[in-house]
């Protein structure tokens, strides 16, 4: 085997898992496409001792820690994954690597309309826990379920709920209004519940079972990150759409501990 563990996805979940496994002296390869979900955001929040840090800085420091313990990280794209008698084959752009265990930490994609793309992660966002404090007491517009309106009112009394977002107005690189039908609503921020899609194509191809969540089917795991496919694990947003950064990191560490014990039990 080239590696004991190949981790597909190098965000908080993948790097956290890689850190634990490299410190356990496992041979680890992290394959990352360098397109984290929170890349547009200038800061991340609710990560104890790292609140306000740039998401990209978190990944930079995380990569350095993993590599410092001997882990290998490559910026590449996975082209295919196959089950073998003694593990797995992972096809990359220019080579195929083999592993005894796989961890998918591939995240999900926010399917944001083109008209909002340039503002996403700035003054248009989905998670009020992540961004609400920064727009406290401002004019907020909410597109989404009624429960989200009640949640957003924790940060401001000036909240307008809309059934559609048909346009926005921006002045001096700041959101100033949301267009909903024939209405023009002055706004400092838009809380927008975008559809999400897990990056789970290879998990499904391997036969991983899914379960229904509030936002659609996601790959099912147990509390240690094990999927229904022996030797295949998943952590972070690819299996849990509600996981914020610190939760995704914890899930990665949890899965890594189970992978290590799994290898020990198998005699490795």
Automatic annotation (TrEMBL):
User: Origin, by domain of life?
Assistant: Bacteria
Q: Which Pfam families match?
A: Pyr_redox_2
Name the UniProt key words of this record, in alphabetical order: Flavoprotein, Oxidoreductase
Q: Which reaction is this enzyme known to catalyze?
A: [thioredoxin]-dithiol + NADP(+) = [thioredoxin]-disulfide + NADPH + H(+)
Keyword Transcription regulation in annotation: no
User: Is the keyword Flavoprotein assigned to this protein?
Assistant: yes
Q: Domain FAD/NAD(P)-binding spans what residues?
A: 3-115, 163-252
What SUPFAM superfamilies does UniProt report for this protein, alphabetically?
FAD/NAD(P)-binding domain (SSF51905)
Q: What is this protein called?
A: Thioredoxin reductase
Q: Which organism is it from?
A: Lentzea atacamensis
């Amino acid at each position: 085997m080239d590696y004991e563990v190949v981790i597909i996805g190098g965000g908080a979940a993948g790097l956290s898992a890689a850190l634990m496994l490299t410190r356990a002296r496992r041979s680890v390869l992290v394959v990352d496409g360098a397109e984290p979900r929170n890349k547009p955001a200038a800061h991340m929040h609710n990560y104890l001792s790292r609140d306000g840090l740039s998401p990209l800085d978190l990944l930079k420091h995380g990569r350095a820690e993993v590599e410092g313990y001997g882990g290998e990280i490559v910026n590449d794209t996975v082209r295919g994954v196959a089950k073998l008698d003694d593990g797995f084959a992972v096809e990359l752009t220019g080579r195929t690597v083999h592993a005894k265990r796989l961890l998918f930490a591939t995240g999900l994609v926010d399917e944001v309309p083109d008209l909002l793309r340039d503002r996403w992660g700035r003054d248009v966002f989905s998670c009020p826990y992540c961004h609400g404090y920064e727009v406290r007491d401002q004019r907020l517009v909410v597109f989404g379920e009624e429960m989200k309106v009640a949640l957003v009112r924790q940060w401001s009394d000036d909240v307008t709920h809309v059934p559609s977002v048909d346009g926005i107005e921006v002045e001096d690189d700041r959101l100033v209004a949301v267009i909903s039908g024939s209405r023009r609503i002055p706004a400092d921020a838009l809380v927008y519940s975008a559809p999400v899609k897990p990056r789970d194509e290879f998990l499904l191809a391997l036969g991983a079972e899914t379960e229904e969540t509030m936002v659609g089917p996601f790959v099912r795991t147990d509390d240690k990150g094990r999927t229904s496919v022996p030797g295949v694990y998943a952590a972070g947003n690819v299996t849990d759409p509600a996981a914020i950064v610190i939760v995704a990191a914890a899930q990665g560490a949890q899965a890594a501990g189970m992978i290590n014990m799994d290898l020990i039990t198998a005699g490795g």
